[in-house]
Amino acid sequence: MARELTYNQKVERSIIKTYRKSIWNPFVEACKNYELVNDGDKIAVCISGGKDSVLMAKCLQQLKRVSNTDFDLKFICMDPGYNEKNRKMIEENCQKLEIPVEFFESDIFSVTEVVGGSPCYLCARMRRGHLYAKAKELDCNKIALGHHLSDVIETTVLGMFYGAQLQAMLPKLHSTNFEDMELIRPLFCVNEDAILKWRDYNDLTFIQCACRFVDEYSNSEDGIGKSKRQEIKLLIKELKKVNPDIESNIFNSIHNVKLDTFISYKKNGVEHSFLEEF
């Protein structure tokens, strides 16, 4: 008689079986191709409470079980001022998915509330600083964030449309303020559509965003609100109807830059012109 799987085991099995091609293989590909996880690493896996960071945590748990690479994981969740409902949802999800998360507090939401305009940039910067500091306290050398392929694509298009620049999101970064610390993005090659399907397949419910300002966007009549990222997300969704390869083409383009066709570019903060080699 076959052994009855626990709920968590069924969720884990779905990652490596049902969604092997769309989640597990792209996850492993990113870790391997971009050298994200190495022997001796101690990685602080940052749980925000959303679908992306929780899936990332489950993938890294599975990788630790099956990989020959010797690395350790610490699961951390910064509470920047969650309401009681959101905090409880995160705790319950981590418990039933057997993610041994450690919570720590910050006052980020109370700080960003008094900032004029969009607080998102400030919030992201402050969150990252707190996460690095906590990871350092735990003797970790890396923090892992749940950014996925769709985030990479949207960031690239956002930079062009609203920043007048060609700028991509890297799969890993050196910290500028915390010595010998790195940031890695293990879901770099995983499309958000696959994450949504995995969530629904397992009847999982997550908080939409750690930020209390998200209701302004969710409840807007046009479905866009003030979020430029949401605007780009909807634009790409429309373009995909005409060109199903639009996402992979944008993603592949940042791996295939023809630098000698650009008028100017910056490297390490220094601007260069094509005239230097004309």
Low-confidence stretches: 215-224
H/E series: HHEHEHEHHEHEEHHHHEE
How large is the share of residues in beta strands? 5-15%
Mean pLDDT: 89
DSSP helical segment count = 11
**DSSP helix fraction:** 40-55%
Number of strands: 8
Secondary structure class reads alpha/beta
In the sheet with the most strands, the strands line up as 3-2-1-4-6-5
Largest sheet: 6 strands, mixed
Instruction: Calculate Rg over CA atoms.
Output: 20 Å
Q: What sort of overall outline do the alpha carbons produce when their principal axes are compared?
A: globular
Structural overview:
With 278 residues, the chain is an alpha/beta fold. A hairpin with a 7-residue loop joins strand 5 (172-174) and strand 6. Helix 7 crosses helix 10 (228-242). The protein has 11 helices and 8 strands. It starts with 6 loop residues before the first helix and ends in a 5-residue tail after the last strand. The strands form 2 sheets. It has a 6-stranded mixed beta sheet, sandwiched between helices.
Using brief descriptors, characterize the structure shown.
278 residues, alpha/beta, globular
Write the layout of secondary structure elements.
Blueprint: H1 7-16, H2 20-33, E1 42-46, H3 51-66, E2 72-79, H4 84-96, E3 101-105, H5 108-112, H6 120-137, E4 142-144, H7 149-163, E5 172-174, E6 182-184, H8 192-201, H9 214-218, H10 228-242, H11 246-253, E7 264-267, E8 270-273
Parallel strand pairs: 1-2, 1-4, 2-3, 4-6
Antiparallel strand pairs: 5-6, 7-8
Helix pairs in contact: 7-10
